[in-house]
C-alpha cells in the first residue's frame, strides 16, 4: 500500500452520505468511522499512513476532501497520507489504530479490496449498477505473470503504434477481442483467442495488463459467473508489422474514449505504453 497516482476516472461513488464528524468517543454505539495507522510505510523518502473508513467509501472521500487530501492518494480502499499530515488528521477526527487492527477493521467492514503483490486498484465501483444489489466491481492493474483465480473471460488489447484492435459487438458498441475461459484455463483460452484473431499463437511478449473483479456476495439466480468473485482479465501485446489481423479494425488513440470509455476495463488503458492512450 504505497502512494501512486489514481486513475483519471477518480474514486467511484463519491456522491453519497454526508460526512459524519469523526469519532464520537464514549458513545454507546461507538460511531468511529474514520481510522488511521501510524506513519510506518516508507516510500519516496518519507513515511506514510493509511486512512480508511469502516462505513463507506463515500464517507472516506468526504473526510479526505474536507482535509485537503488529493484524490491521487486514493488506493481503492484507503488513502495514503504522508507522515506530516498524521497529527492533523487525528485532530480532525480520524481515530488512531495500529496497522494490524486497521487491516482487520477494513476487512470486517467489507470494504477491503484484495490484491496481489505488484497490483494496484485503479478504480472501484461500489453497488455497481450492472451487478446484483450490494456488489462491487474493482479494476486492478497488475504486473503479475498470471491472472487471478476465478478468471472467467480473457481480453486482448493488441496495439499497432497508437492504435488498438477492436471488434464491433453484435449487440452494438465496441470492445476488445474476448473469449470465455471455460474448462481450458485462462492462458489456453488467451492463446486460442490470439490464434483466431491473428492466425498465430500467443507470443511470449504478451503481458497481463490487469483485470476487473466482480465481488457479488448475493448473486441472483440468473447471474452467470462464479460467486462471490469472478475476474475478467486483459492482456496486451504489439504484434510485428507482418501480422495482419483476421478480424476486427484498428482504432486510433483519439477515438478510444468515445468508443470504449464505457467499458468496465477502460481504466486499465492508462497502463498501456505511452502514446496508445493519450
Key features?
single chain, 278 residues, alpha+beta, Nucleoside Triphosphate Pyrophosphohydrolase, 2 domains, 9-stranded mixed beta sheet, 5-stranded mixed beta sheet, 5 helices, 14 strands, disordered N terminus
Write up this protein.
The chain is of the alpha+beta class and 278 residues long. It has two domains: 1-112, no CATH class; 119-271, Nucleoside Triphosphate Pyrophosphohydrolase. Helix content is 16%, strand content 28%. The chain is built from five helices and 14 strands. The protein has helices spanning 57-66, 86-91, 99-109, 186-198, 256-260, and strands at 34-36, 41-43, 46-53, 79-82, 95-96, 119-126, 136-142, 151-160, 163-168, 174-175, 178-180, 207-215, 229-237, 249-251. Strands 6, 7, 8, 9, 10, 11, 12, 13 and 14 form a nine-stranded mixed β-sheet that branches. Strands 1, 2, 3, 4 and 5 form a five-stranded mixed β-sheet that branches. Strand 2 (41-43) and strand 3 form a beta hairpin. The radius of gyration is 21 Å and the shape is elongated. Mean pLDDT is 85; it is low at 1-30.
- Gap between N and C termini, in Å? 27 Å
Q: What CATH architecture of the largest domain do you see?
A: Alpha-Beta Complex
Secondary structure class reads alpha+beta
Task: Please count the beta strands (DSSP E, at least 2 residues each).
Answer: 14
Q: Tell me the number of helical segments per DSSP (H or I, 4 or more residues long).
A: 5
Low-confidence spans: pLDDT under 50, at least 5 residues?
1-30
Spell out the CATH superfamily of the largest domain.
Nucleoside Triphosphate Pyrophosphohydrolase
Strand content: 25-35%
H/E element sequence: EEEHEHEHEEEEEEHEEEH
- The best one-word shape is elongated
Number of domains as seen in the coordinates: 2
Q: How is the main sheet built?
A: 9 strands, mixed
Classify the helix fraction into a percent range.
10-25%
Gyration radius (Cα, Å) is: 21 Å
The CATH class of the largest domain is identified as Alpha Beta
User: And the CATH topology of the largest domain?
Assistant: Nucleoside Triphosphate Pyrophosphohydrolase
Mean of the pLDDT scores? Answer: 85
Amino acid at each position: 500500500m504505497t502512494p501512486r497516482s489514481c486513475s483519471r476516472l477518480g474514486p467511484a461513488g463519491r456522491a453519497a452520505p454526508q460526512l459524519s464528524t469523526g469519532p464520537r468517543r464514549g458513545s454507546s454505539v461507538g460511531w468511529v468511522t474514520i481510522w488511521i495507522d501510524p506513519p510506518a510505510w516508507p516510500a519516496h523518502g518519507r513515511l506514510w499512513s493509511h486512512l480508511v473508513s469502516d462505513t463507506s467509501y463515500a464517507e472516506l472521500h468526504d473526510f479526505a476532501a474536507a482535509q485537503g487530501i488529493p484524490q491521487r492518494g486514493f488506493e481503492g480502499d484507503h488513502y495514503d497520507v504522508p507522515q506530516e499530515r498524521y497529527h492533523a488528521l487525528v485532530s480532525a477526527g480520524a481515530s488512531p489504530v495500529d496497522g494490524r487492527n486497521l487491516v482487520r477493521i477494513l476487512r470486517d467492514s467489507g470494504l477491503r479490496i484484495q490484491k496481489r503483490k505488484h497490483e494496484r486498484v485503479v478504480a472501484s465501483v461500489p453497488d455497481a449498477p450492472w451487478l446484483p444489489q450490494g456488489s462491487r466491481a474493482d479494476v486492478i492493474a497488475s504486473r503479475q505473470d498470471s491472472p487471478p483465480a476465478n478468471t472467467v473471460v480473457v481480453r486482448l488489447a493488441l496495439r499497432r503504434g497508437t492504435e488498438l484492435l477492436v471488434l464491433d459487438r453484435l449487440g452494438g458498441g465496441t470492445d476488445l477481442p474476448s473469449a470465455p475461459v471455460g474448462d481450458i484455463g485462462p492462458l489456453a483460452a488467451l492463446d486460442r483467442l490470439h490464434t483466431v484473431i491473428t492466425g498465430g499463437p500467443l507470443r511470449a511478449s504478451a503481458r497481463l495488463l490487469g483485470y476487473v473483479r466482480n465481488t457479488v456476495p448475493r448473486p441472483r439466480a440468473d447471474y452467470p459467473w462464479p460467486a462471490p468473485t469472478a475476474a475478467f482479465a486483459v492482456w496486451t501485446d504489439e504484434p510485428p508489422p507482418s501480422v495482419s489481423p483476421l478480424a476486427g479494425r484498428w482504432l486510433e488513440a483519439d477515438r478510444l474514449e468515445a468508443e470504449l470509455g464505457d467499458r468496465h476495463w477502460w481504466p486499465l488503458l492508462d497502463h498501456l505504453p505511452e502514446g496508445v492512450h493519450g
